[in-house]
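Convert to structure. Protein one:
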Amino acid sequence: MLADTSWGLGGLDRRRVRVRHPQGVKGGEALRLVVQSYREHDVVAGRPTPYARPLASAQRAVSTDQLRGGIQLDLVHFDGEGDDVVVIAWTEEGDADLDFDGLEARPSRGSHLAAVEALHS
């Protein structure tokens, strides 16, 4: 679907990242990992500002063991005219069942923030 809707359009950007939480997280084995990218000015103290809109998002069902080792994924979005991009990730209890692949999700105060490393393609 992406190829059909983006044919003839320039400026697609892919960010390959690894998300990990070395100590793991407390809670059940059923965790939802949400990963989003934002323009740098839309993130303060590691969290998106109230009206910030993600450039891209992804969600995955993960276990604490997978988080310790790291989970690799790609975020695809339209390139924003030289804006610096920040990627944030967090886990919540539950399955990967958010609408729009987690695009409208926001980390709650109880969410466990994870480290995000940029990988070279």
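Protein two, convert as well:
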Amino acid sequence: MDMVFSQNKDPDLIVREQGWELITNPAVISEAVKKVHAAEASVFTEAAGAADNPKRRKTLTAFLVGKVLAATNGRADPEIAGRQVEELIAKS
């Protein structure tokens, strides 16, 4: 909020200039998901094997979505990232 007043700029412009926009492009998020999958393949496998333990699967999925968000500096849409992570878990 301080930047809006100190720079006398539109908040949307500041967000764009700072690179703080939410990433909603599934292709861009998919690249981050692929990188996390490569780095955390064992967690994807463990999540796939936890089909009989929904709480464990949810915890592992949340961990992986967190890794995707971290890989995008918190900018990936968590809903899209979650769907993509779930799809990869199902394939594991």
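Helices lie at 2-7, 11-18, 26-39, 41-49, 54-71, 78-91. The chain has one domain: 22-91.
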